[in-house]
């Protein structure tokens, strides 16, 4: 059965956060459902749809921004009480809009995640989890990394309260009371959790998770251990997952999986076989999807998928056909309906244009008076700066509630800007002076009209650290700009991982000195990405990392007065030694630094780099030949006389050029890494080999692995 859905835009509220829109249960069997949504102006809006128009049920007054909205009620009854988390408070409303609960939790931070099950309330701030029953404190847990979402397995099915926390360090933490029962390792930082089928499946133990790097998975949370069921990668390189729901949109009696992503892609997966879900349908909205629900909203008997986007649009994808079949009378009736709707919209538009003109005149008059006070319009920017494992680059995503005019990107460290397919903005580079101002990049992205979301890609160089700044200017009057800063860390291409290969040849760096656990943790946070800012509980901690560009690894273990760092790449150890000693010197702390260098690790690292080097050199050679071969093709008219390898270059010319363009300076980066490895190897021996670098570059051009290893060992 082919799925055909038509888009309907119902209403726009203020900017919305993740999981802040729900559908209230229908009162009759085929009745339409009311929509309730909370925005960052603190307003809860409830409305229904009549004849295609949004009819308000209730609307609360503005207040603190709403971070979560959930439905609750007694177990096994319709869940029609509305609960919102705002700041550190939870408020409850009836479906008519009457407030019946105002619960001040006294949490020191704002609530980030919330789940409700009967009389049980589960709340999470950044690192803290709290469980309340009838608004009385029951359990508490301090997480090792930031909590992104919380869920509890259905109590009526599993007969116990089993909360699950989705944590930034790629782990689901399953709790029992105030204690950790076990951890579930997942392939990316989990951003959202949902009960499979809306009820946890037959056992009530099945949880679907979505990650910030776009992966989707199902895991069964049993009383003793997790059982992974299926996992879907992100082959299409789509955005991170923000919301998940289960709903039978196909009408075949089996609920489909609805997924909303931060690049605006809405997906429907169905279970054709009992095993893995299959992507059945997708639709691209222009901004990130904060919440997703399946139900009946617009018209009786027509199911639809409702999504709320970042800027507050409530958009439905309905099964109701756009062109109705029927006699001429129905068509006439429909056209009359449409005509009256069009004329009312025209009147509304004229009224708004008049209002804008009046307000603009009023502003001009007030700005020219002597007592004028300049007012800067405020606007929300939703930004995300993350490392992509696949191509070792950073994605900077900027989303604004109104259209973007331009974005100026400035960096005080050398970085490459990479091409992004989805990006339609025109980029222009300005020459910059790197010496006095340490300004290495100055680029302006001019956006097309109605662009609210911009995605940039940058690649940094390990060992060079500083700040990337984005100046965001939207199309609003008077012109105003927001500056957002992003740290490029010394080991910026490293990513947290669950485990490493301990059989590799490792180099060890050991630090000893009069420093506290909090101090050495702050140095590690400064040096490496994906390390929680909060000092870990306990006396010591171990983190594992993998270099996304080369595949080398790092193990860091530290406690008060001692730190031990192991890596199979000497350059990683060298960068850490320089950064950590510099940070300690700033605080006037004496460090006793010792290192153990494994000669075999250099050969091992070169063997990891060489296939990449060989591939990039071959790609560069092929690209340089394309123009000459094309000229030959034009002159000769026939290329059958060419060798097969040259013919294949001509056939694949467009793909080769595209790949080369997508990875500028890739070969130079590899040359730089091998040169650094060479210098660092001998730096630990106290020898300066910079004069031998030109000879090394000659050997690199020859692309001979054995010759390269021999040069490293003989120098």
From TrEMBL:
The lineage of its organism: Eukaryota, Metazoa, Chordata, Craniata, Vertebrata. The gene is Bbs7. Residues 377-486 form the BBS7 GAE domain. Residues 21-319 form the BBS7 beta-propeller domain. It comes from Thinocorus orbignyianus. Residues 494-596 form the BBS7 platform domain. GO terms for cellular component: axoneme; BBSome; ciliary basal body; membrane; neuron projection. This is BBS7 protein. GO terms for biological process: intracellular protein localization; non-motile cilium assembly. Residues 599-712 form the BBS7 helical hairpin domain. Residues 335-362 form a coiled coil. Keywords: Coiled coil.
């Amino acid at each position: 059965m082919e799925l055909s859905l038509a888009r309907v835009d119902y209403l726009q509220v203020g900017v919305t956060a993740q999981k802040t829109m729900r559908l209230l249960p229908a009162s009759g069997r085929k009745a339409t459902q009311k929509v309730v949504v909370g925005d960052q102006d603190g307003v809860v809006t409830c409305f229904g749809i009549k004849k295609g128009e949004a009819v308000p049920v209730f609307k609360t007054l503005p207040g603190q921004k709403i971070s979560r909205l959930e439905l609750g009620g007694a177990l096994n009854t319709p869940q029609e009480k509305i609960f919102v988390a705002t700041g550190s408070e939870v408020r409850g409303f009836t479906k008519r809009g009457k407030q019946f609960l105002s619960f001040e939790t006294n949490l020191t931070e704002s609530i980030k995640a919330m789940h409700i099950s009967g009389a049980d309330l589960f709340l999470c701030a950044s690192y803290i989890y709290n469980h309340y029953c009838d608004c009385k404190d029951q359990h508490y847990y301090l997480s090792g990394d930031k909590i992104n979402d919380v869920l509890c397995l259905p109590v009526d099915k599993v007969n116990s309260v089993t909360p699950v926390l989705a944590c930034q360090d790629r782990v689901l933490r399953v709790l029992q009371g105030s204690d950790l029962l076990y951890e579930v390792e997942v392939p990316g930082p989990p951003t959202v959790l949902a009960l499979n089928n809306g009820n946890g499946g037959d056992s009530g133990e099945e949880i679907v998770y979505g990650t910030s790097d776009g992966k989707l998975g199902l895991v069964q949370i049993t009383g003793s251990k997790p059982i992974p069921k299926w996992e879907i990668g992100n082959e299409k390189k789509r955005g991170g997952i923000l919301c998940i729901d289960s709903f039978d949109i196909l009408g075949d009696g089996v609920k489909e999986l609805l997924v909303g992503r931060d690049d605006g892609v809405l997906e429907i997966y169905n279970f054709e076989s009992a095993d893995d879900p299959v992507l059945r349908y997708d639709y691209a909205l222009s901004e990130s999807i904060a919440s997703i629900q399946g139900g009946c909203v617009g018209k009786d008997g027509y199911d639809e998928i409702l999504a709320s986007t970042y800027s507050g649009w409530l958009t439905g994808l309905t099964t109701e056909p756009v062109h109705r079949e029927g006699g001429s009378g129905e068509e006439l009736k429909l056209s009359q309906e449409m005509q009256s709707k069009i004329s009312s919209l025209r009147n509304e538009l004229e009224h708004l244009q008049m209002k804008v003109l009046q307000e603009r005149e009023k502003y001009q008059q007030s700005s020219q008076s002597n007592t004028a006070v300049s007012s800067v319009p405020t606007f929300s920017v939703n930004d995300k700066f993350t490392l992509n494992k696949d191509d070792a680059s950073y994605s900077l995503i900027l989303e604004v509630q109104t259209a973007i005019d331009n974005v100026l990107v400035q960096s005080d460290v050398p970085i490459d800007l990479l091409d992004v397919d989805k990006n339609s903005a025109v980029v222009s580079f300005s020459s910059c002076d790197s010496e006095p101002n340490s300004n290495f990049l100055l680029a302006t992205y001019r956006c097309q009209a109605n662009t609210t979301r911009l995605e940039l890609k940058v690649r940094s160089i390990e060992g060079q650290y500083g700040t990337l700044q984005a100046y965001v200017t939207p199309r609003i009057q008077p012109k105003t700009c927001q500056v957002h800063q992003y740290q490029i860390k010394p080991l910026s291409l490293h990513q947290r991982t669950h485990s490493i290969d301990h059989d590799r040849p490792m180099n060890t760096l050991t630090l000893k000195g009069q420093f506290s656990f909090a101090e050495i943790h702050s140095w590690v946070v400064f040096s490496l990405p994906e390390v929680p800012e909060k000092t870990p509980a306990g006396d010591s901690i171990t983190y594992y990392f993998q270099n996304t560009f080369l595949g080398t690894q790092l193990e860091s273990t530290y406690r008060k007065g001692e730190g031990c760092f192991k890596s199979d790449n000497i350059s990683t150890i060298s960068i850490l030694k320089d950064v950590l000693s510099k940070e300690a010197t700033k605080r006037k702390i004496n460090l006793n630094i010792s290192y153990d260098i494994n000669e075999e690790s250099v050969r091992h690292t070169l063997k990891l780099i060489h296939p990449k080097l060989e591939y990039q050199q071959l790609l560069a050679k092929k690209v340089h030949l394309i123009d000459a071969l094309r000229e030959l093709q034009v002159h000769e008219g026939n290329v059958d006389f060419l060798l097969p390898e040259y013919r294949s270059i001509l056939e694949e010319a467009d793909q080769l050029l595209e790949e080369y363009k997508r990875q500028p300076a890739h070969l130079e980066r590899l040359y730089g890494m091998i040169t650094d490895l060479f210098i660092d190897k001998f730096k630990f021996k106290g020898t300066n080999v910079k004069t031998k670098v030109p000879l090394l570059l000659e050997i690199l051009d020859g692309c001979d692995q054995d010759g390269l290893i021999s040069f490293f060992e003989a120098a």
